[in-house]
Amino acid sequence: MSSRGSVADVVVVGGGIVGLASAHAILQQRPDCRVILLEKESKLATHQTGRNSGVIHSGVYYAPGSAKATYAKAGSEAMFAFARKHGIAVEQCGKAIVATSEQELGPLAKLERRAADNGLEAHRLTPAELREREPHVAGIAALWLPSTGIIDYVAVCETLRELAIDAGAEIRPRAKVVGINESASEVVVACADGAEVRGRVLVNCAGLYSDRVARLAGLAPDVQILPFRGEYFELARSRRHLVRGLVYPVPDPAYPFLGVHLTRGVHGDVHAGPNAVLAWAREGYRLFDVNTRELGQTLSYPGFWRFARQHWRMGATEYRRSFSRRAFVTALQRLVPEVELADLEAAPAGVRAQAVRRNGQLVDDFLFVDSPRSVHVLNAPSPAATASLPIGREIAGRVLARL
Question: Is 0.90 topped by the overall pTM?
């Protein structure tokens, strides 16, 4: 069958880690299934998957019983096992969440209780114990989470791609979806190059464009994706010794982001960041990247203005770090006082796809929305990469129930 009129059992939109994990899980559970994965870029894992800090999260931040908490714990264990099985670079290095003021001791204690509620190993560290693990980190207390790790998620995606292809999947790059027609018996997907793919079930893992793909399919979700750019720096090679593993601040419980932190990667590099500022384009990786249509959609969305009214002070602080490298350094110095302005080298930014409801509330858990012939992943920010393997199994279960 020609690529301009192909037929599949399942059409997956999106070649990030969640889309690839879903294709892999479907074929594991149903080896005779015909799967076609469509990715608009020329390469897989180009956006959120390929532009994060490579952390395997433990699940300490998430509400007990939530999908994030459940899938992060299961996903962490599965990701370590997957990496070791397939020879992917991985390290279980642990993570320190560091309190630098008396005001942060209460939130730190809540995180310790949450770790227990989520079934995670966690240890409270004194300042002396913290210095033993991280000699250059300053804090009056810390929570140590030994199950946290680091990995190369692009390498994970390459392995998932190979496994999916070996199992019979077809993966098509440069296949931007521009139209979807869902009927009682099938889903017809139109691509920008004129190709058409027919499937029995559609899986939407389009990340930054997941809400748009859902609307193309005829859904009217009560969310819109807002893009938040996270800007990173990298410590100069001569200063990498300042951080041994993962060092995080105590997060503000009223804000959905974790704060500027320091993360050692599996290849020895140390990243500092990210901040979190509203991007002026869904793929706005640079400070002045603007897509006027997308920015107009953001500014015309009632949920954006309601969110902005609630969090404008924090937003102003984040933008200050965006425009001022010195402000970024000041935030880092709370954790590692020896970091200096000259230590920071620019690193690629990422953009987080965050679903926001019309009332201005951020969707704080993974969000799946189904129709008779489709499964849509409408919110899968961090820890989605950590949780991708169990998320893939969840999606596979929903898909196979429709076949």
Answer: yes
